[in-house]
Design goal:
The chain is mainly beta. The chain is built from three helices and 23 strands. It starts with a helix and ends in a 12-residue tail after the last strand. The structure holds zinc ion.
């Protein structure tokens, strides 16, 4: 009895110590905010380089084509704090500054070649520039090809799309998206990510090659045209009309309204040119300017816009590179 009490006291003391250790600047492993029952988050792969003046860590689901990669740069000296930069394949990796160092994300584009890859980390101190070339291997992702051609209802009818009021709306939607995705706001991503649904069932996978049927109306008759190639720039997840949609990361709502192809459409700006977007909703629960957290219900599943049935389409873009949105889930971001 007495022993038990002592053991408990010691245990409590240890717990108190580890709580203190979880102060800002110390790694905390936050599991995803929300994952569907039975869904196993894939294990993350970590790579680490210790150099004289800096430690660099990369984390990714697989370092595969279409994966997001998380970068952590921890300088060993304060002196180089203000001059750290990073790039991957000549594309800048936008970094957010923390008291302990820097962190950022980049996307391995579906079209980036598999095989040798590398990031470059640049440290500048006064007139001295130090360049670290940190190699890793990009794995191949086999993106599937859908054999059947899809009938997307009125969106298949080229005569309908050519109507002046329809084509004007398509143009207006394209202009809005162009403006939003060109924005560069400060980092808003915290430590946690979330699965976007309360059920995990992928009905159309990331970067699947698809064909859309096309026809036109000539002299009142339907004339078939060659199908149009389409690349699936996100994933489709099963969901009944009205099922919840969760924000995959913290951010600010950049757009929440109806678009031509996307239907009820929400774009979340996560800062540093990272955006997630959610299509075909039956209801939008947020408005432009709202701050959201990973796991917040931002809308409900539906079948608005170009859709063959109720589902959620979710996409993730990292500095112009489309990645599989579910590839964020294994990442534990430091704050
Ligand atoms: Zn889709």
């Amino acid at each position: 009895m007495r022993h038990n009490h002592i053991a408990r006291t010691v245990l409590l003391a240890i717990l108190t110590v580890s709580n203190t250790a979880a102060a800002p600047g110390v790694r905390t492993a936050s599991p995803p905010a929300k994952v569907p029952p039975g869904y196993q988050v894939p294990a993350a792969k970590d790579l680490k380089w210790d150099r004289d003046r800096v430690t660099v860590k990369l984390t990714s689901r697989g370092f595969s084509q279409g994966d997001i990669v998380y970068v952590e740069i921890t300088p060993r000296e304060r002196a180089i704090d203000d001059a750290v930069s990073c790039e991957y394949r000549s594309r800048p990796v936008l970094l957010a500054k923390y008291p302990w160092g820097y962190r950022g994300f980049f996307g391995i584009a579906p079209a980036d070649p598999p095989g040798p890859g590398a990031i470059t980390v640049l440290l500048a101190t006064g007139s001295r520039l130090e360049k670290h070339h940190l190699p890793f291997t990009v794995s191949t992702t086999r993106f599937p090809v859908l054999r059947k051609t899809l009938n997307v209802g009125k969106y298949t009818n080229q005569s309908y799309l050519a109507k002046p009021e329809v084509s004007a709306f398509i143009k207006k939607c394209a202009d809005i998206k162009k403006e939003i995705f060109a924005r560069a706001t400060p980092n808003a991503i915290g430590a946690r990510f979330s699965h976007p649904r309360d059920e995990h069932y992928v009905t159309s996978s990331f970067w699947m090659k698809r064909l859309y049927q096309r026809f036109t109306i000539k002299k009142g008759r339907r004339v078939a045209l060659a199908p149009q190639n389409n690349t699936h720039r996100g994933i489709d997840l099963r969901g009944k009309e009205g099922a919840p949609i969760f924000a995959i990361a913290d951010g600010v709502v950049a757009y929440a309204d109806t678009m031509f192809y996307e239907g009820n459409f929400t774009v979340i700006d996560h800062g540093n040119r990272i955006f997630s977007y959610y299509m075909h909703q039956s209801k939008i629960n947020v408005k432009t300017g709202d701050a959201v957290k990973a796991g917040d219900v931002i809308g409900l599943v539906g079948s608005t816009g170009i859709s063959t049935g109720a589902h959620l389409h979710v996409s993730l873009v990292v500095n112009g590179v489309q990645v599989d949105p579910l590839s964020v889930l294994p990442i534990r971001a430091r704050e």
